[in-house]
Amino acid sequence: MKPRDSLGLREGYHSPQLDVEVRLNTNESPFPPPREFTSAFESYLRKLTLNRYPDRSYKEVRAAIAEAYDTEPERVFCGNGSNEVLLNIALAYGGPNRRAVVFEPTYSLHSHIASTVGTEVVTLGRDSSFQINDALVQQAEDISPEMVYLCSPNNPTGALEDADIVKKIFALSSDPLVMLDEAYADFLGQKTNLGSEPETLIRLRTFSKWFDLAGLRFGFCIASKEVVSVLDQVVLPYHLDQIKQVAVLAALRTRQHFEDKANAICKLRDDLYDSLVSLGVRAHPSNANFILVEFPEKDPKMIWRQLVERSILVRDTTSWPMLPPSLRITVGTALENERLLVALQEILR
C-alpha cells in the first residue's frame, strides 16, 4: 500500500550531515552547555528511578517554565522539540477540511507538519523585505483559515514580525489559532509585545537555540488553558522521559550561565555581519543566531560546494520557496567565523 501523497519533507528542508570541521548549518549553539548546568544535571540524575515511568503531567517542569516565562503552569505544554508541539497542535486543530496559512519564506516544518495531518496549506508570499503587509493580511482574511503560522525572529531571514500586523491577523474574522514560533526570541531578551494575550495565541519556544541543548530535543508552548487541555488529550502518554525532565529543570536553574553564552553569540553575530558586509555580499540584519546572505555576482550553490571542500558546512537555501538564491550561516565561535570569512575571501576573488 502506498503512503498518502501529503507525506514527505519538501526539497530543501533536510540539511546534509557531513563530516566537516566547521558546522554552521543548523543554528545550533557553537558552545557546549555551561559546567554549572552539567553539575546540576548530574545531581538530578543520581535521584532518578528509571524502572518507573516518568510523571506523565511533568508538573515540576511546567512549574519551572511558568516561573521563568511569567505565566501559569496550566498554560504550558511541552514536547520532544518544538516540532512535536507543532505536530500535536496540528493533530488537534488541523486535518481534512481545515486550512492553514503560512507566509513564505519561513520555517519549512510549519507547512510540512500541517499538510502531513491532512490540513490544506495556503502559501502567501512576503513582500520584498520579507515582511507581512496589509495586503497579505487581507488575502489571509479572504482564505478564512483555521490556523496561521508566524515566526519571529523569522527563519531563515532573521527578521521580526511586525507586532501591529500580528494583531491584525488575530482580528481575522475566521478567528484562527495563531502559532507564533519564537524559537530565536530569547536572543532578543523579549517576546513579541501584543498587549493583552489573545486566547487564540500559541507561543512556541525551544531549548535547541538560546539554550545550548539541541541534543536534548525539548520545546514547549504557552497557550490558553483550554488549548493546553486539548493538547494533553492528544499527546501520547509518558512522552517526556525522566532524563529530559530533569535536564530542563537543571537548565532553568542555571539559566544565567546560558544567558552569558547567548550574549557572546549575539556579539559574534554582529561582528560576523559587519565582516560579511565588508566582503561585498548582501547580508541581512538578524535578530537570531544566523545570518542570511546573498551573493550578487556568484552562484550560492557553487559557493556552498567550495566551502564544503574546505570542510565548512553552511545551509544551502537556494531551493527554499520565495527566497532569493542565498546561504544561511549559523554564528560559530570566533575561530569558526574567521575560518569561514577567510574561505569566502578566497572564493569571492
Topology:
Elements: E1 22-24, H1 35-45, H2 59-68, E2 76-79, H3 82-93, E3 99-104, H4 108-116, E4 120-125, H5 134-143, E5 147-151, H6 163-170, E6 177-181, E7 201-206, E8 219-222, H7 225-234, H8 242-253, H9 255-278, E9 282-283, E10 290-294, H10 300-309, E11 312-316, E12 326-330, H11 334-347
Helix pairs in contact: 1-8, 2-8, 3-4, 9-11
Structure description:
- With 349 residues, the protein is α/β, with parallel strands linked by helices.
- It has 2 domains: 22-32 and 256-347, Aspartate Aminotransferase, domain 1 (Alpha-Beta Complex), CATH 3.90.1150.10; 38-254, 3-Layer(aba) Sandwich (Aspartate Aminotransferase, domain 2), CATH 3.40.640.10.
- 37% of the residues lie in helices and 16% in strands.
- The chain is built from 11 helices and 12 strands.
- It has a 7-stranded mixed β-sheet, with helices on both faces. A 5-stranded mixed β-sheet has the order 1-11-12-10-9, sandwiched between helices.
- The termini are far apart.
Number of strands: 12
> What order do the strands of the largest sheet run in, or round the barrel if closed?
2-8-7-6-5-3-4
Uncertain stretches of 5 or more adjacent residues: none
Cα end-to-end separation: 53 Å
What class would the helix/strand composition place it in? alpha/beta
**Global Rg:** 20 Å
Q: How is the CATH topology of the largest domain named?
A: Aspartate Aminotransferase, domain 2
Relative strand content: 15-25%
The helix-strand sequence is EHHEHEHEHEHEEEHHHEEHEEH
Estimated helix fraction: 25-40%
| Full CATH superfamily name of the largest domain | Type I PLP-dependent aspartate aminotransferase-like (Major domain)
Chain-averaged pLDDT: 94
For the record, the count of structural domains works out to 2
Largest sheet: 7 strands, mixed
Shape: globular
The assigned CATH architecture of the largest domain is 3-Layer(aba) Sandwich
